[in-house]
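Example S7 (structure tokens).
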């Protein structure tokens, strides 16, 4: 039978859907899935002026027939009828189905039928083959229903009746009709549901718990550890095959005992992140048990394109006992727990708890306050002096960000920078620091012509160091008034350089070409890559304060510092010692050949006005 065509340009606005299902408790769930924005209309509400779909429901097939007949006579017919065929009453239900079609020649009928050749035979003989009839085999789940509903809605919006020309009563007809919706709701690589479909499913679970508080469920957030290394080293084709295999393994860990609906597969968020919704749980221990299975299964070796590969995963779990009302909040908390699992060493799982919630709330508050501080320029630059050991002259200052906030006054600057990097504020914050430091240096050039060589150093974070736009921004700042770029220095850490040596190397070489100086900060901690000393265009290295602690009391520490200084000399680098607190330390460093010192012995970080007073005092104390 050919498809019937509605008036061209007609939309699905105000369309009516009828659900016939003997289980009244499932009506609300079906209504939410079939038309999430629809008003509840069990009593047969008309379409009215609303642009929403109206989903009406009844338990008996005979009542459904009457509703369809009355709707047709009123001029507001049903477009779709979903009929759940009860196995025990299959024949009467099929007779009612035939009557539904007889009363409305434009009706689209979807039958939920039991598996088996007997049911197929009765459907063919009692209802007949028609493009107006679609059979959805049991058991099926919300995924099938969502895809079918959205596919039907899309076709009605295009002005089409039916699902396939000459379709007949086949499950394959549904698959063809739902193809477009499936693409929109599933990850193209793994075939798993995507974030949209997972969020819809999770929202349904939250709604069910509101009606049935005894129901317990959990969201499991899975992130693969060091997947990027495999992807970058072996190529994206290998990475894609690996992701598909990981998806299958995660799916295999979800036995029917772990979830309410058999069709609940994991979802892929993108990249190497997956989500799983576990329903019908007895407690947190059930979710933990599934997570443990996943960790074991994912960590088993993979053979991809001739490579034997090994992976681990970090898993975060958020459970429904926190009585979530928004699906996104539950996913966020599972993600937070996953991050804690990574911080704990990777390859494990963490349950989101009250303490974590308080920490996450405090972190969110910190992020908001920092964003406001950057927007409203509430941050300040402080300056710590650097002194030359050979003659005691003032060599320059290191600029340090300070946040004058009543609650975060004591917060370490490293914590502030970490938040800025994670939120993406680091680029704006870094540009402000650069501009303010250069403005202050230009002012001091004018105020203190007797100090022609003082410099100001600015710290670069890891995110800034791999930003290809950084050299351009620096060049623009320099052109706005900094006459001598050599008096501007950037401080970088070994760890930041080695996170991405190629990208950071390109940025550093571009900066050095402008004439600015580069200092390798915190040398001797973390990676301690000696290759940095001769592969990068460095001007000096800074010995970390940890090497200076008890340097005067423990000769071995002095030997280590002397070796670092000798290494720097061999690479034609100057040496700055940080954290110098006593005159004895400064004198020992001078004897060891250190060039400059910085620390409380020389001066604490101070604001610009106090730094100017410091410079005047140094000039007044200088003979001649």
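Recovered sequence:
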């Amino acid at each position: 039978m050919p498809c019937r065509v509605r008036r061209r340009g007609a939309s699905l606005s105000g369309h009516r859907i009828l659900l016939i299902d003997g289980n009244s408790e499932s009506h609300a769930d079906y209504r939410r899935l079939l038309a999430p924005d629809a008003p509840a209309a069990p009593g047969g509400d008309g379409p009215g002026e609303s642009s929403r779909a109206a989903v009406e429901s009844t338990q008996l097939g005979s009542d459904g027939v009457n509703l369809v007949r009355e709707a047709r006579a009123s001029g507001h017919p049903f477009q779709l009828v979903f009929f759940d065929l009860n196995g025990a009453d299959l024949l009467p239900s099929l007779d009612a189905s035939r009557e539904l079609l007889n009363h409305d020649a434009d009706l689209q009928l979807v039958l939920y039928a039991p598996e088996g050749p007997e049911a197929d035979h009765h459907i063919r003989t009692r209802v007949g083959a028609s493009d107006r009839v679609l059979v959805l085999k049991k058991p099926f789940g919300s995924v099938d229903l969502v895809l079918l509903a959205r596919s039907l809605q899309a076709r009605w919006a295009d002005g089409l009746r039916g699902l396939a020309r000459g379709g007949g009563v086949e499950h394959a007809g549904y698959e063809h009709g739902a193809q477009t919706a499936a693409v929109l709701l599933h990850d193209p690589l793994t075939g798993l549901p995507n974030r949209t479909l997972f969020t819809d499913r999770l929202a349904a679970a939250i709604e069910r718990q509101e009606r049935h508080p005894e129901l317990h469920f959990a969201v499991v957030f899975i992130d693969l550890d060091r997947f990027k290394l495999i992807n970058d080293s072996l190529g994206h084709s290998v990475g894609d095959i690996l992701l598909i295999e990981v998806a299958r393994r995660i799916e295999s860990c979800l036995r029917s005992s772990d979830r309410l609906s058999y069709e609940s597969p994991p979802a892929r968020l993108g990249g190497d992140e997956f989500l799983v919704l576990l329903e019908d749980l007895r407690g947190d221990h059930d979710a933990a048990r599934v997570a443990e299975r996943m960790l074991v299964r994912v960590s088993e070796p993979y053979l991809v394109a001739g490579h034997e590969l090994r992976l681990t995963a970090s898993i975060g779990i958020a459970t429904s006992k926190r009585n979530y009302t928004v699906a996104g909040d539950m996913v966020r908390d599972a993600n937070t727990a996953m991050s804690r699992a990574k911080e704990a060493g990777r390859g494990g799982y963490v349950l989101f708890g009250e303490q974590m919630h308080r920490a996450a709330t405090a972190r969110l508050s910190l992020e908001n306050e920092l964003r406001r501080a950057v927007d409203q320029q509430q941050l300040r630059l402080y300056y710590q002096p650097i002194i030359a050991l050979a003659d005691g002259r003032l060599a320059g200052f290191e600029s340090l960000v300070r946040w004058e906030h009543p609650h975060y006054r004591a917060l370490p600057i490293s914590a502030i920078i970490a938040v800025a990097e994670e939120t993406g504020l680091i680029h704006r914050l870094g540009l402000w620091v650069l501009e303010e430091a250069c403005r202050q240096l230009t002012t001091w050039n004018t105020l203190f012509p007797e100090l022609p060589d003082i410099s100001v150093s600015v710290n670069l974070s890891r995110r800034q160091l791999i930003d290809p736009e950084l050299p351009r921004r620096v060049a623009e700042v320099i052109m706005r008034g900094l006459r001598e770029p050599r008096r501007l220095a950037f401080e970088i850490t070994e760890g930041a350089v080695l996170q991405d040596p190629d990208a950071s190397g390109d940025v550093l070489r571009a900066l050095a070409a402008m004439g600015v100086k580069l200092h390798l900060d915190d040398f001797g901690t973390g990676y301690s890559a000696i290759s940095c000393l001769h592969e990068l265009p460095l001007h000096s290295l800074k010995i970390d304060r940890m090497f200076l602690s008890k340097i005067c009391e423990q000769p071995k520490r002095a030997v280590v510092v002397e070796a670092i200084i000798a290494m720097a000399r061999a690479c034609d680098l100057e040496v700055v010692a940080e954290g110098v607190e006593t005159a004895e330390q400064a004198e020992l460093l001078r004897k060891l050949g250190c060039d400059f010192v910085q620390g409380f012995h020389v001066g604490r970080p101070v604001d610009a006005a106090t730094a100017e007073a410091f410079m005047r005092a140094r000039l007044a104390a200088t003979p001649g």
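Notes on this example. Residues 354-375 form the longest helix (22 residues).
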